[in-house]
Amino acid sequence: MDDMILLAEVAETGSFTRAGERIGMPKSTVSQRIAQLEARLGLRLLNRSTRHVSLTGSGQVYLEYCRRVRAEVLAANMAMTNLREQPVGKLKITCPEVTATYFMPSFLHGFTTQFPGIAIELIATNRHLNIIRERVDFAFRVGTTTGQLHNHSAYLLNKTGACGRASISGKWHSSSGTDRSAPAALSGA
């Protein structure tokens, strides 16, 4: 397929040198690859002279297919670039009910704003789903993981954080009388 694209470049520029410059390949490599293409096909595609390259009758027929292949390859590459820049599809997420209630609304709002082409299916449940069988793409879990998760090659397990339990009510003052209700003070800063 790459050689078909290369033939289209040679035919359009009329030169191995110019085609090579266009695609960043040495003239000798361009010439060698076109010769290999002709050998595989069992047909001469180009008439060569010291100053000019032109298509044979077979080359003209083949060039139309080469141009279509090149156009499809360019379209496929553009589609992949667009997906990388703005992904589309469905994302199936599961999380505990409390996470769905308190954390997910703001997370999902931010996510869908950044990636509007992604449709979210959220499964809020306190039971541990078989994420392979249920075809879950992303699972938030709270607590310790079981051994089977650590030993299963299909899982990518990342610990995102740990938190202790805290109960804060109103203003709390240290023995020095400092107001400890500000967030920076709570972190010990």
What are the salient characteristics of this protein?
about 45% helix; mainly alpha; about 190 residues; Arc Repressor Mutant, subunit A; 2 domains
Q: Give the proportion of residues in helices.
A: 40-55%
Cα distance spanning the termini: 62 Å
Beta strand %: 5-15%
Unreliable spans are 163-183, 185-189
User: How many β strands by DSSP?
Assistant: 5
CATH topology of the largest domain: Arc Repressor Mutant, subunit A
Main beta-sheet strand count, sense and barrel state: 3 strands, parallel
Tally the helices: what do you get? Answer: 8
Radius of gyration: 31 Å
Number of domains: 2
Q: What order do the SSEs take from the amino end to the carboxyl end, as H and E?
A: HHHEEHEHHEEHH
Mean pLDDT: 79
- Under CATH, the homologous superfamily of the largest domain reads Winged helix-like DNA-binding domain superfamily/Winged helix DNA-binding domain
Major β-sheet strand ordering = 4-3-5
Structural class: mainly alpha
Shape: rod-shaped
CATH hierarchy class name of the largest domain: Mainly Alpha
Walk me through the structure:
- It is a single chain.
- With 189 residues, the protein is mainly alpha-helical.
- The protein has 2 domains: 2-83, Orthogonal Bundle (Arc Repressor Mutant, subunit A); 89-150, Periplasmic binding protein-like II (D-Maltodextrin-Binding Protein, domain 2, 3-Layer(aba) Sandwich), CATH 3.40.190.
- The protein is 47% helix and 12% strand.
- It has helices at 2-13, 16-23, 27-41, 57-85, 97-102, 104-114, 147-150, 183-186, and strands spanning 46-48, 53-55, 89-95, 118-124, 138-139.
- A 3-stranded parallel beta sheet has the order 4-3-5.
- Helix 1 (2-13) crosses helix 2 (16-23) and helix 2 (16-23) crosses helix 3.
- It is rod-shaped.
- The model is unreliable at 163-183 and 185-189 (pLDDT under 50).
